[in-house]
Amino acid sequence: MSKNAPLSDLRKSYEQGTLEEHDSANEPLQQFETWLSQALERGLPEPNAMTVATVGEDGRPSTRPVLIKGCDARGIVWYSNYHSRKGRELEARPFAALQFHWVEMERVVRIEGRVEKVAAEESDAYFATRPLAHRIGAWASPQSEVIDGRTTIVSRAAEYGLKFGLNPPRPPHWGGYRLLPDYWEFWQGRTSRLHDRIAYRLQPDGSWARQRLAP
């Protein structure tokens, strides 16, 4: 198709895979770990990248990309500035939605649930593993605030670099979040737009109800 074709004419046929109920895992975490492992094995660009959506006190939604840093039975973990826009929104409304889009595999995973901060000790342990420049950056960036220009950040990074040297502590305004899933959805592209969608909903007894959704 010509690069000058109108957006309304753009089409793609999804033909790489299928997702049947009998082939999906009984537990959503197991299904997610399988798909994530396959994305890693294929060497996809940033398979750990996910979009996080939050809602402000005014009901206005916002999204931004972050990187998953942990995944187990407790939930999905990422790290950020607690004073950022998403931090303020999560403080007011502690619920979020996550989305992974592995374009090359024609797959999407959506996850919804309540969000809480991880323990300070867990944030400290992860912060200590970050490259030095990233640790300094956590101090230097007043995330989501208006600044005069890039020189502001560069100057602040130099300032904190001199202050802390090789051992900057974790800023009190920076740490981890954990989303506790109560809903998972796995989307596999199929031909004729008859996509596969398998959803898992958390039940009161802690089990998961698996359902097929119309595409």
Please describe what this structure looks like.
By secondary structure, the chain is α+β, with helices and mostly antiparallel strands. It has one domain: Electron Transport, Fmn-binding Protein, Chain A (Pnp Oxidase, Chain A), CATH 2.30.110.10. The chain has 5 helices and 9 strands; from the N terminus they run H-E-E-E-E-H-E-E-H-H-H-E-E-E. Strand 8 and strand 9 form a beta hairpin.
Overall structural class, as computed from helix and strand content, comes to alpha+beta
Distance between the termini: 26 Å
* CATH architecture annotation name: Roll
For the secondary structure, the number of strands is 9
Q: Which key phrases capture this entry?
A:
single chain, 215 residues, alpha+beta, Pnp Oxidase, Chain A, nine-stranded antiparallel β-sheet, 5 helices, 9 strands, globular
Spell out the blueprint of helices and strands.
Blueprint: H1 28-41, E1 49-55, E2 61-67, E3 70-72, E4 75-81, H2 85-92, E5 95-102, E6 107-117, H3 120-129, H4 132-140, H5 150-164, E7 174-188, E8 196-202, E9 208-212
Antiparallel strand pairs: 1-2, 1-5, 3-4, 4-7, 5-6, 6-7, 7-8, 8-9
Short synopsis of the structure:
The protein is an alpha+beta fold.
